[in-house]
Amino acid sequence: MTETTSGSSSRKGKGQAQRKGVRMRRIFTSPGVHPYDEITWERRDVVMTNWRDGSVNFEQRGVEFPDSWSMNATQIVASKYFRGAMGTPEREWSLKQLIDRVAGMYTATGREHGYFGTDEDAEIFDHELKYALAHQLFSFNSPVWFNVGTASKQQVSACFILSVDDTMESILDWYKEEGVIFKGGSGAGVNLSRIRSSKELLSSGGTASGPVSFMRGADASAGTIKSGGATRRAAKMVVLDVDHPDVEEFIATKAREEDKIRALRDAGFDVDLGGADIVSVQYQNANNSVRVSDKFMRAVQSESDFGLVSRTTGETVATVDAKGLFRSMAEAAWACADPGVQYDDTINDWHTAPESGRISASNPCSEYVHLDNSSCNLASINLLRFLRDDDTFDVENFTRMTELIITAMDISITFADFPTEKIGATTRAFRQLGIGYANLGALLMATGHAYDSDGGRAVAAAITSLMTGTAYKRSAELAGVVGPYEGYAKNAVPHKRVMRKHAAANDDLRPMHAMDRAIATAATAAWEECLKTGEKNGWRNAQASLLAPTGTIGFMMDCDTTGIEPDFSLVKFKKLTGGGSMQIVNQGIPRALANLGYQQEQIEAIVEYVSEHGHVVDAPGLRPEHYEVFDCAMGKRYIKPMGHVHMMAAVQPFLSGAISKTVNVPEEATVEDFEHIYYEGWRLGLKALAVYRDNCKVGQPLSTAKTEDAKEPAAAEPKVIEVNRPVRRRLPKKRPSQTVSFTVGGAEGYITAGSYPDDGLGEVFMKLGKQGSTLAGVMDAFSIAISIALQYGVPLETYVEKFTNMRFDPAGMTDDPDVRMAQSVVDYIFRRLALDYLPYDERAALGVFSVEERRAQAAGEDPAQVAAQVESYAQSAPRVGEESVEEDDDRPRERAETAHTSTELMELKQGFVADAPLCITCGTKMRPSGSCYVCEGCGSTSGCS
User: What sequence ranges are listed for the domain Ribonucleotide reductase large subunit C-terminal (predicted)?
Assistant: First the structure.
């Protein structure tokens, strides 16, 4: 797509002498034909609703998109990236306007600063960029779409790293800078290891607070800014070096807070989402990571002691058992998923600019690792778009696309604005870029490669090497046109050393098939040219590549898989242009089966089986040795944890930065499993690693109630005494009742409660799970037992006391404003029954309040008055009779079999519960994306742009 020539640029950069320009040649476009003219465009109506309450989240009718774009991509782009007030002429309504706004700024800046040899080259760049974006070949990160070409600041970066020193002024600056970044919807990371420990003295003679103490203030700030209007939590990373004297306290912070949550709920405090007491839970707005050194890991290996170092004197102030400290990290991560690990020496061994400072921190998702007070803008290539119809990889066009993207990304730094002056100065001096890709998992499956296989890893490694080699080659060519980055002269020797390390890793590639052999050959040529050109010109960028989560932009490109992730599931939800949705089987499955040698009739039978069951086990005609090709992140056959680690290790040597990815392990994983994964991550040369155990946020030791039951003293010797046996008071044939629908952690259910005519609860029926399932049967039996006991006179408050705060899965957010979070379905049911049938005084003693009562408490009012008013309304309202219950009789069955995302579809088909949050915007269950979550319904993310 591009090439460098000796021609002169038609314009000069500011303050620069006349330079050679980059000459462009067409690949996808034709002279005299605008790229939009070769696309079939259509008008669509975008109406996005929250399916739980039917409210409209977004509506814009008559938007214009290519007919090849899915409705899901259309909705996400129109709702998130179109600028201008709704209902005004300034509101964007066409993808053409969006792309023109962004590409126009890139082309104009490139012209102004001497990137192009001629005006014709600038036009070709403009056309090729617009073609690539309109055809979903790649995408810039979200801030580009939000800001470029608007009246807002031209912020293009999604990833930021801050710094903090051991002074109060620096700490307060950290709070302020972090807040500015959060307000803009981005995330930041920081290393607190320069702050002296709580075991060291201040110059005044007092004892220092220590970094963990200052984390509290930053966490509260992040939570406040989040609650001030953001639709996702503030994304932040906090890092501490393993030799810091406060490292043990740092490791335990979040695990200890999980214990606090349990204790508060068991004591009756309101720690529901938005509850009055949740603010007392700390450190919940950040990801925590420990920076481990090779020295520490070798001490773990040899089971020797390790020294903790004073931040003021540099002396060893304490020694710890390295293996014991390492185990405490694994135990904390097992309990609550934090801390993750960053491998300090590995990161800095691949650092291109060490003369300007060490790499000490990362962005929130851990893929961007570079200098303090810096930022990185990202772009990701849609790999599946480069798979030809004959199932060969389009090496040439992939290479040209990489060159085009790097050129555009470097141009963006020239016009970009930054949240602080320090970040702007560092980023302009080192020009860090982060090109990456999405749809790797889909590409591997479509070509018949198992994700967890030598063949799959060979393809991934070759593609990553070609991408980074081409990116740095283009960076060296740009250095010959507009000059190397400012910090290059000081760092020329280490930068060249890292380039040689990448090239040497490429030499170690061992292709296994024709596909990866062709890619590896091109990668070798790219690295050779990179070294040759860089030796002459230097490089324009200190960093070129990394692998980001690609959550929202992955949906914009209609990707099946995000970042480096495998496929999430074999069946997906597809939104239809005219409204509604349908279930589809991944399009890569028929292609994979054809590549594996299956005939058309066999393929059709297997696809039909997958559509019905959601997996391939026992699919008709499918050979068991091919099952692994269709292994996914979740489901009946899921990729084992070390499969994820080995894939990361395969591509890491070919990335300037790191990889955003969380290794998911099953709930039954042990602390030893965590130790093994963290150790292997270091041994295999990863830069960062996070591990998440399914349900670890709720799958904790037994609750207080169960513990107390277990500790009851043995019964005394039996005595013969007379008792009055209770008499069962049966309900009349016709009795008032009410039905409440609910969701807990994404699981749907119904409560039907019947009352005596003279008031008082007499029966409860709970529906959960599919009819005939074990869960449904257990709930039916449980309902009968509770109902009979109520009729024999067991007070409802006894059940509320016993069953609230009971923990098991499913658990999490509910759709009930009075009970926003539930520890389990049983916890929710008896809280709801208490609110509906117990008087205020009894509920208050049990710690169960309605949302209005909590608001009254927060406002300093008497919640009892609110409760009395609500009860008076309830007494004057008509009862819901048995007839209304019968009318709704079919609804539980209908809704229980309804799914609204691919995650919920897989839960329905395979009977597991995905450990993922509900989207705060549209209410559907999200799915993993890198080290966070993304909603495929509206594109919202839980912390990544």
Answer: 157-692
A 10 A CB-CB count for 711 gives: 7
Q: Are residues 376 and 440 in the same domain?
A: yes
Answer yes or no: is 693 within a domain.
Answer: no
Domain contains 618? no
Which range (462-466, 565-569, 624-628, 870-874) has the least confidence? 870-874
Least confident of 6-20, 494-508, 524-538, 615-629: 6-20
Active-site annotation holder among 177, 200, 367, 763: 367
The residues, ordered by sequence, that sit 6+ positions from 309 with a Cβ below 8 Å of its Cβ are: 243, 244, 245, 315, 316, 317
Based on the domain organization, do 469 and 528 belong to the same domain? yes
Q: Is 367 a catalytic residue?
A: yes
Q: CA distances (Å), 766 to each of 477, 628, 775, 823, 834, in order?
A: 68, 39, 11, 17, 15
378 and 242 within one domain? no
pLDDT tens profile 32-63:
999 999 999 999 999 988 766 677 888 999 99
Q: Is 95 helix (H, G, I), strand (E, B) or coil?
A: helix
Which residue in 147, 178, 249, 365 is the catalytic one? 365
Same domain, 366 and 418: yes
944 an active-site residue? no
Same domain, yes or no: 167 and 148: no
What global pTM score does this model have? 0.78
- Claim to verify: residue 347 and residue 371 sit in the same structural domain: no
The helix/strand/coil state of 930 is: coil
As a whole number of angstroms, the distance between CA 185 and CA 174 comes to: 17
Catalytic choice (363, 491, 506, 664): 363
Q: Residue 778: give the domain boundaries.
A: 739-889
159-161 vs 187-191, strand pairing mode: parallel
DSSP assignment string, 269-328? ---STT-TTGGG--S-SSEEEEEE-HHHHHHHHHT-EEEEE-TTT--EEEEEEHHHHHHH
305, 325, 354 - which closes a domain: 354
Query: Is 373 part of the annotated catalytic residue set?
Result: no
Question: Average pLDDT of 461-478?
Answer: 98
**Domains in the chain, number:** 3
Can you give the CATH number for the domain in which 221 is found? 3.20.70.20
